Amino acid sequence: MTDFVEVIATGLQSILVDSGRSGYQHLGITTGGPADRRSCLWANWLCNNQNIAASIEVIGCGFSLKAHSYCEVAITGAATQITINGLSYSPWRSFALDAGDSLTINKADNGLRSYVAIQQGFRVPETFGSCTTVTRDRLGGLTQDGQPLKQGDRIAFYSQTHAIHPVTAKIAPLEAQRNAIVDPYSELTLRLIEGYQIDDFTPTALKQFYLNQYVVSPDSSRMATKLTGNPIKAPNKPMLSEGITRGAVQIPQQGLPIIMLDDRQTVGGYFKVGSVLSIDCDLLSQATPGCRVTFSPIDIHTAHNLVNLAEVKHANLFTQINFN
Length: 324
Description:
Blueprint: E1 4-10, E2 13-17, H1 37-45, E3 55-59, E4 63-67, E5 71-77, E6 81-84, E7 87-89, E8 93-97, E9 102-107, E10 113-118, E11 154-156, E12 174-175, E13 187-194, H2 203-211, E14 214-216, E15 224-228, E16 242-243, E17 248-251, E18 258-260, E19 267-268, E20 271-276, H3 278-285, E21 292-298, H4 300-319, E22 322-323
């Protein structure tokens, strides 16, 4: 291996992700993938990757890597300050690293998760068509057994040359527009598409659900965001377990919502009020414990329009990208 980066420090936790492991839920294999897909996609765009290639998802700050040959990387997500060889830079832009350069995420004040992408993606093995790490399923990652990255790991990448961007300033010329950047927030309104089980809840329970202000629990993870607050009455009747989607809002018998995310189990046996809009799941994945959460119902047509509008907005922002 000649072209690789070495993990110097992992921060709270760092894992390899890509677009996810789709098409295997019937085998009990969840999709995984970046918790904040929009930020991960932007990191890849800034590396001239059209889609989400193998990247690194970092929780909190403290992650550090050392390049062992020339490469171009980009940092997005919650990161608010990075250093290269001790010099500070703003994230949400790409950087050219020479052999021996060290990059560290020093601050991540805009949420929970940051993303490190590299031109053409990291060159890592795949399991079921993806390198995405799912620790609960023991799948993916550098050693294909679901383990997070650890200090000293060497992650290969495809050979790059100086020909694409000059390295003289140590800064490659791509920078995201301000409107694309994740902002910190302490309150979040999640748009919800009600599901077919909505009629199993009493009108009183649903009214309470929409009026309640919940709080993100510290006991949240890539599998699900758990909420605390005033419980509502869950339906008290048996139901068969069924397939479950990203964003599904389960109400277990204790009455507090659980919002399923990328590393969710593939089936669930709790009643669901509906599913959170996919683009709001990206925001939720950056919500820190203590963030206040409310729900607002929308219909399926509005949901499709909102998702399409978001796609157009970010595509337009990408065309206006700053070339320094």
